[in-house]
Amino acid sequence: MDIIELKKIAKRIRLSTMQMLEKAGTGHPGGALSMVEILVTLYFEKMNIKPHEPNWKYRDRLILSKGHGNPSYYAVLSEKGYFAKEKLSTLRQYGSILQGHPDMNTTPGVDMSTGSLGQGLSIGCGMAIAAHMQHEKFRVYVIVGDGELDEGQNWEALMSAVKYKLDNLTLIVDYNKLQINGSNEDVMGIAPLDKKFAAFNWNVIRINGHDFRDIRNALEMACSTSGRPTVIIADTIKGKGISFMENNPIWHGKIPDRVQFEKIFRELEGDI
Amino acid sequence: MTAAKIATRESYGNALVELYKKHNNIIVLDADLAAATKTGIFKKAVPDRHYDCGIAEANMMGIAAGISTTGLVPFVSTFAMFAAGRAFEQVRNSIGYPHLNVKIGATHAGISVGEDGATHQCNEDIALMRTIPGMVVINPSDDIEARAAVEAAYNYDGPVYMRFGRLAIPIINDKPSYKFEIGKGVVMRAGKDATIIATGLCVGASIEAAEKMAQKGLDVGVINIHTIKPIDKELVIEAAQKTGKIITVEEHSIIGGLGSAVCEVLSENCPTPVLRIGVNDCFGHSGPAVGLLHEFGLDAEGIDKKVSEYLK
């Protein structure tokens, strides 16, 4: 797909994301905004999927381990046609198909229920093992937040992905450097991520997570790597696209006020 | 009852081999305990379907969840302590919440683990697992029931927790009429004075205890509740109505396990005095399994003593 087109889609996704959060009145803007280009590239260019047949057996899978970032994920799924766009305004409300964290049983297109951090990569390993065992060609993508790398289960999963030679598994780290209590390095310290993943024998690629060419090339390299899994460390900006939200940890789980939303929509709509 | 004794963990390993002969979409996961959980028996028979996930139970539960989404049926195996305890939240959120078709084979449950002591004697797993919505909890009472449970778990669509023991125990379900059905309790012995409702290895011990009591003129019935969730409400209520006194016996904490489940049913449907026999809100310790069961009053002698006293 043309890069200009991908950029247009990303802008629409950011606008939808903020509209959803405004309506919901609760949710997590920062991490939803930092992974928009990653999601758009995966769903509009890379993944082999049939939105009219969400449970198609041979589809590529995506696990959003950082489940709290789901507004942009839901916006992408809706843009792809998994469900009607009107549903987006029901996010986090009674009876909604769009739960506060992804639920595979209520939202078409969601491949795994997530939200409790640190569990997605293990599940991705399981799907990738099953694909290998059944000689199926589908690929498995897992998006983790950088903050959730504090969870030890990730490092258990990293070992098992190498043991089972899961070259059909691609891990993408939305490396926006911030988590609830502040910077990754102040909260726990996860750096140097590239060296850690390399020491675990993963194929490591580092990119600008807002650059479509970078993302596209990295996903391609992951596909052509055999015998071991690939991790794409995507340097991103938390709150990307909204001037006053960028790189500020307070926007992890905070909803803007009315005046701020007006500014947000001026910025985002001006873009489109 | 026959003289042959077999541990239900051994039944589990054997049953997996038999199951694979009929259903080749199963896959067995283990966490560096294949010799102890007896999935080693399956590994020997079907090596390419046995996955050793290392000493990393949380990750193993996630892998099982992922595998199950593709239509394969994973049997995840480790000690009860680590399946229900360490990996509780993974079982709850990655398996229970999405209601995935994962079968958990948890061995080394209860104090009959023996010499390994308190850290490995899980007396809390039934309590933990039965709080998860949609989770089936099965605690078989002998080899025959354990093997039937594995097959039934496969045929059930959804998460199942199966509890197996380390200690070899007698076979008690060898009647030709024996039939295993998830959620259906089994009347092992009729009685008029009171009913013992037992689970797991305590069923055999309770039958023996009832026989001892019969010699003293006490007519005590025994019900085997192999499925603690969903529990056989009708049978429990019927026993309470018929005998007016209920005693629960389990190799598990008296908090949250079979005793609690029976009390929940009766308090809402047929308030009845219940004596709960089990591990009395304390940790176990090292010792031979049989000695520990005696010490904790969970062998025939102990059950006989407590129940006889209760019925005085």
Automatic annotation (TrEMBL), chain A:
Gene3D superfamilies: 3.40.50.970. Keywords: Thiamine pyrophosphate. InterPro entries: THDP-binding (IPR029061), Transketolase_N (IPR005474). Residues 7-253 form the Transketolase N-terminal domain. Its cofactor is thiamine diphosphate. CDD domains: TPP_TK. It comes from the Bacteria. Belongs to the transketolase family. This is Transketolase. It comes from Pectinatus cerevisiiphilus. The lineage of its organism: Bacteria, Bacillati, Bacillota, Negativicutes, Selenomonadales.
Automatic annotation (TrEMBL), chain B:
It comes from the Bacteria. Keywords: Thiamine pyrophosphate. SUPFAM superfamilies: Thiamin diphosphate-binding fold (THDP-binding) (SSF52518), TK C-terminal domain-like (SSF52922). Its cofactor is thiamine diphosphate. It holds the Pfam family Transketolase_C. Transmembrane segments: none annotated. InterPro entries: PDH/Transketolase (IPR051157), THDP-binding (IPR029061), Transketo_C/PFOR_II (IPR009014), Transketolase-like_Pyr-bd (IPR005475), Transketolase_C (IPR033248). Residues 6-171 form the Transketolase-like pyrimidine-binding domain. This is Transketolase. It comes from Pectinatus cerevisiiphilus. The lineage of its organism: Bacteria, Bacillati, Bacillota, Negativicutes, Selenomonadales.
